[in-house]
Each structure stands twice: as C-alpha cells, then as structure tokens.
Design a protein that fits this description.
about 75% helix, single chain, about 180 residues, about 0% strand
Length: about 180
C-alpha cells in the first residue's frame, strides 16, 4: 500500500500518480462542499473538475507542509466564487435536502418543508461570499474556526463574527417570509 503521507510531497514534485491518489482521497468531500455551495449537481461536477485542473496546473506552487485538502478547498472556493459571479445564483436546492423518506409526512408538511427550504436557499444565495463561505465550511463541513480562517485568510475571531452575522441574516430573512 502506498504511503499516504508522502503523496502531497510527491504530487508537489509533479508525480501524476500521487496527484491522482490525492484526487481519489478528496473528491467525495470536495464534491459535497461544492454541491452545497452552488446548489446544482451538474455544476458541482464541473467545478470539481475545474478545481482539480487548476490544482494540477499550480501543483508546483503547493507547499507540502500545508494540508493538501485545505489548499485544494481554497482553490474550490475561488472556483465557486467565480461561478457565482458568472451565474449570480447559488443555493441549497439539493435533491437530497428536499427528498422525502418512506415515513413521508403529510402533503401539507412536505409543501411547507419545500417552501422553507426554498426560502433558505434564496436567503443563502443572497448572503455575500464573505459570510456564506465561512458558514458553509463550518456548518456543513464541521471545520473549526481556525481551519476556516486558514482557508479564507482571516482570523478565527473574524470567522466567528462572519458566521454569527450570516446566521442572523438567514434568521431575519426567514422571519420576514410569509
């Protein structure tokens, strides 16, 4: 079995096999994050591919002392931001978020849940990137404020403040809805 600890160093030297192994190890988490950020599965797949292409093109600038997943996530965040500027629309309308299980609630409850999810989707899409990114990284991915701070180039206190502002903005948007 390949020594996983050496993969980032080997990839940084241009070893394609090591980079491929890192892609395999990170693709599920990266796709999950990007999918939540952009809201569309097809767009998420495209952005994940673009992220890996950009990472390969920049691999010689990667510092193996940093966690590969953190470096890769920073590239993905930039790709998502570029996508949002081009599209102007993002959200959390994932089918799994709207899916109904076998113990399906009443139709009225399902409709209300979908309406609230659509409201949350719009409220999240309306958040500025500076608030949305730390919220998604911390809430959906369970990353610590320190990790998020490293990813976005801020202090942990700034991350804490941005997450609190994002939550207040989402709560206010949901409270204003009919």
């Amino acid at each position: 079995m390949e020594d996983e600890a050496s993969l980032p160093s080997r990839a940084a030297r241009g070893d394609r096999a090591a980079f491929t192994a890192l892609m395999e190890a990170t693709k599920a988490d990266l796709h999950r994050f990007v999918r939540r950020y952009v809201g569309e599965d097809d767009d998420a797949y495209d952005l994940v591919q673009e992220t890996y292409v950009a990472a390969w093109l920049a691999i010689r600038r990667y510092d193996p002392a940093r966690p590969f997943a953190v470096w890769l996530r920073a590239i993905a965040i930039n790709k998502c931001r570029d996508w949002s500027r081009k599209r102007g629309v993002m959200g959390l309308d994932a089918p799994e978020a709207l899916a109904v299980g076998e113990d399906a609630p009443a139709v009225e409850t399902q409709l209300d849940d979908r309406r609230r999810m659509a409201l949350l989707d719009r409220a999240l899409a309306a958040l500025p990137d500076a608030l949305k990114t730390p919220l998604l990284l911390a809430t959906l991915e369970g990353r610590s404020h320190a990790e998020v701070a490293r990813l976005i180039g801020a202090t942990p206190k700034a991350v804490e403040t941005r997450i609190a502002r994002a939550r207040r903005a989402l709560a206010a948007a949901l409270d204003r809805s009919p």
